[in-house]
Amino acid sequence: MGRLTLEGIGKDYDGVEISRDIDLTINDGEFVVFVGPSGCGKSTLLRMVAGLEDITRGEMCLDGERINEIPPQERDIGMVFQSYALYPHMTVAENMGFGLKLARTDKAEIRRRVEHAADILQITRLLERKPKDLSGGQRQRVAIGRTLVKEPAVFLFDEPLSNLDASLRVEMRVQIAELHKRLNATMIYVTHDQVEAMTLADRIVLLSSGRIAQVGAPLSLYHFPKSLEVAEFIGSPRINTLPVTVVDPGPQRTGVRLPSGEMLAVAVDGRGLGAGDTATLGIRAEDFVAPEQGEARLMARLMVAEKLGYETLAHLQVEGAEGTVTQRLDGLAHLEEHQVVDLGLAGDELSSNLVDGGQAAFLSD
Ligand SMILES: Nc1ncnc2c1ncn2[C@@H]1O[C@H](COP(=O)(O)OP(=O)(O)OP(=O)(O)O)[C@@H](O)[C@H]1O
């Protein structure tokens, strides 16, 4: 079992609040990713779970038992660090079994567990090698193996792939997803990479300034962000934001004026807003429609087209607004430099909304 509950968890360093009001239940077998910008407190929270940092406030329980005061080695929790920290003079097998040896585990049992973990991680043929004779990806697998042999109820990963190059990161990401499926163990994974978060997580915990900004399934955060901050963090390219003016707030639909001067009825509850209020319209790059299908249009000029083969990202300057918006187009769309294009907007595509920081934010789903 590996059910973790965090109630009112907080952490101070020298009187400064780093984490606050963390209420979270992580179910047995769940893959939860802590994500957020640098310094938001992801690692601190993970290290509190591991027992490597004292908890200033709140209660943390594993399978119903309070673990606040339990030292790391006595928690049924294993951690994979960003730096592999393998012992250079030991073989892979010795590195993997070292923790068990220190815990005075029987030799035959150590061998059984090391061989079993090596089999799962497909590194059996590397067991007699030294770390210097391994690639970065192989070292990372050994580091995971070292945790795997402990057979913990909860696995913690602290940015485990950040030292690897892009293609290896994708490969290891798939391996970690497979490992989770195979073990069905509780896993908590820290990253600042929202793609890793989106692809690995059953649930994402998005942290901001030491607090939870939103918890939910990846697509629920993508489609129904509770705030502009969440909307802007999740999704690549970043969600487009356009300033609009509220004209006709209503319970089901709210009329807004776009920078082009055209009106658009957005499918959001605008109660609480007043005519004349400034709002932010959030539009995902794939949510622009053909001008003839839109209820309103924006005029824009192409600044840069990034042709990625499978898609083209068009960066456009919208007339009447500052900055650029990005439109996602299929394949090798034919675009000419500085071409003027009409972007269509359909109010129904823009259906989730929130009032953010006193401003209304309409976010496209
Ligand atoms: N030992 C410490 N003493 C004082 N402040 C600390 C200590 N460790 C971390 N902090 C501060 O706590 C905040 C959260 O740090 P943390 O490492 O948890 O963030 P993070 O989200 O994991 O960031 P990153 O993605 O850059 O690793 C930061 O402002 C950091 O400077």
Automatic annotation (TrEMBL):
Keywords: ATP-binding, Nucleotide-binding, Sugar transport, Transport
Domain ABC transporter: 4-234
Protein name per the record: Sn-glycerol-3-phosphate ABC transporter ATP-binding protein UgpC
Keyword Isomerase in record: no
Pfam family, one: ABC_tran
PANTHER family: MALTODEXTRIN IMPORT ATP-BINDING PROTEIN MSMX (PTHR43875), MALTOSE_MALTODEXTRIN IMPORT ATP-BINDING PROTEIN MALK (PTHR43875:SF3)
SMART domains: AAA
This protein's encoding gene: ugpC
Gene3D superfamilies linked: 2.40.50.100, Nucleic acid-binding proteins (2.40.50.140), P-loop containing nucleotide triphosphate hydrolases (3.40.50.300)
Transmembrane helix is among the record's keywords: no
SUPFAM superfamilies in the record: MOP-like (SSF50331), P-loop containing nucleoside triphosphate hydrolases (SSF52540)
GO molecular function: ATP binding
Domain of life the protein comes from: Bacteria
